[in-house]
């Protein structure tokens, strides 16, 4: 259990996740207040990774629900295992015959069979999905509802009971209340606006692309063998590329991939030729690659001019003859 905001920063750092005080404060408050956290921001900035390292730091089992268009409660909560019910029906066929043997009419037979509904509609035949697993677990869990913005508004509305009361209602069985309240993180790539009702139930956290200084620290942590100058140059150029009008802006994961690619090619400096050859590592659309290539010369040229301007120049020798007394 986290004992302070500084403790969150320290524990996550030990897991290889570099975070600032703002992120650590939200994580700490989520634990203290038992509130879900809605984490929004561009793809690839570490939203899902944050949930993973928090679960690991707290020693909680991570249960992940990956959202997508068309996701319904049967896939997220539970579904009946009809094949198993049918198998049991075949096995118990003789017992069913004995049960209705003394009935005088079809209605009476149906009434007798109906009294045995609980046999075939029990938790024995339920297949728990992520939401139900998190609620019925005997141990504290971390429930990650990933990319919730990809789900339909109807499913978002269905989540409200889970996030408010941490219970689910199964018509044939009744209401199941959480044995141990899970810590819930929801992530969104901001593909659509989340409802006010959902946001009201959650603490909000926006994670953006990190500053150059923070990204260099992340790069040093994830790629420990990288030279300091190469790390700084990669991050500096990556930040300039992110300012271009691209279809998909490269994320932190692309920064790490690019650094590893440059090291694999034994490149210890950022040169225009090697950058052009490896742009497909960080840019996923041909139009983005072409746009970056067209601007790359300017970016590299500006960097070279700046370096030359900062480089100390040797003192010039005086061409005038010095007098003998000098």
Strand order of the largest sheet: 2-5-8-1-9
Number of spatially distinct domains: 3
Can you identify the CATH class of the largest domain? Alpha Beta
Q: What summary fits the major beta sheet?
A: 5 strands, parallel
- CATH fourth-tier homologous superfamily of the largest domain: P-loop containing nucleotide triphosphate hydrolases
Class from secondary-structure proportions: alpha/beta
Give me the strand/helix succession: HHEHEHEHHHHEHEHEEEHEHHHHH
- Corresponding CATH architecture of the largest domain: 3-Layer(aba) Sandwich
Q: What is the C-alpha radius of gyration, as a whole number of Å?
A: 30 Å
In short:
By secondary structure, the chain is α/β, with parallel strands linked by helices. The chain contains 16 helices and nine strands.
How would you portray this structure in words?
With 326 residues, the protein is an alpha/beta fold. It is built from 16 helices and nine strands. The chain has helices spanning 5-14, 21-33, 47-58, 73-76, 82-91, 93-99, 106-114, 117-120, 130-136, 153-165, 196-200, 212-222, 228-242, 252-264, 272-282, 286-310, and strands spanning 37-40, 61-66, 78-80, 126-128, 141-146, 167-170, 174-177, 183-188, 203-206. The chain folds into three domains: 5-77 and 130-206, Rossmann fold (3-Layer(aba) Sandwich); 79-125, no CATH class; 212-310. The strands form three sheets. Strands 2-5-8-1-9 form a five-stranded parallel beta sheet, sandwiched between helices. A two-stranded antiparallel ribbon has the order 3-4. It has a two-stranded antiparallel sheet with strand order 6-7. Helix content is 52%, strand content 12%. The protein starts with a helix and ends in a 16-residue tail after the last helix.
């Amino acid at each position: 259990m986290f004992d302070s905001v500084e403790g969150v920063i320290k524990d996550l750092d030990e897991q290889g996740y570099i975070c600032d005080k703002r992120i650590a404060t939200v994580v700490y408050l989520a634990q203290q207040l038992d509130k879900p956290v809605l984490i929004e921001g561009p793809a690839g900035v570490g939203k899902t990774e944050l949930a993973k390292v928090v679960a690991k730091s707290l020693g909680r089992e991570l249960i992940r629900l990956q959202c997508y268009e068309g996701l319904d409660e049967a896939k997220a909560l539970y579904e009946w295992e009809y094949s198993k019910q049918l198998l049991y029906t075949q096995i118990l066929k003789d017992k069913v015959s004995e049960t209705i043997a003394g009935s005088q009419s079809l209605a009476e037979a149906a009434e007798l069979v109906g009294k045995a509904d609980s046999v075939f509609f029990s938790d024995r035949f339920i297949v728990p999905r992520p939401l139900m697993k998190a609620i019925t677990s005997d141990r504290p869990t971390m429930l990650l509802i990933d990319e919730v913005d990809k789900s339909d508004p109807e499913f978002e509305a269905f989540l409200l009971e889970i996030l408010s009361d941490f219970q689910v209602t199964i018509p044939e069985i009744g209401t199941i209340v959480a044995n141990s309240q899970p810590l819930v993180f929801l992530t969104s790539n901001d593909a659509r606006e989340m409802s006010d009702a959902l946001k009201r139930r959650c603490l909000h956290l926006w994670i953006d692309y990190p500053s150059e200084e923070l990204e260099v620290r992340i790069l040093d942590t994830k790629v420990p063998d990288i030279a300091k100058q190469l790390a700084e140059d990669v991050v500096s150029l990556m930040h300039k590329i992110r300012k271009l009008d691209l279809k998909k802006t490269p994320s932190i994961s692309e920064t790490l991939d690019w650094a590893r690619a440059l090291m694999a090619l034994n490149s210890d400096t950022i040169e225009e030729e090697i950058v052009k050859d490896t742009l497909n590592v960080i840019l996923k659309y041909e139009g983005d690659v072409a746009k970056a290539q067209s601007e790359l010369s300017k970016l590299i040229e500006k960097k070279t001019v700046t370096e030359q301007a900062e480089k100390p120049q040797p003192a010039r020798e005086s061409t005038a003859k010095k007098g003998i007394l000098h």
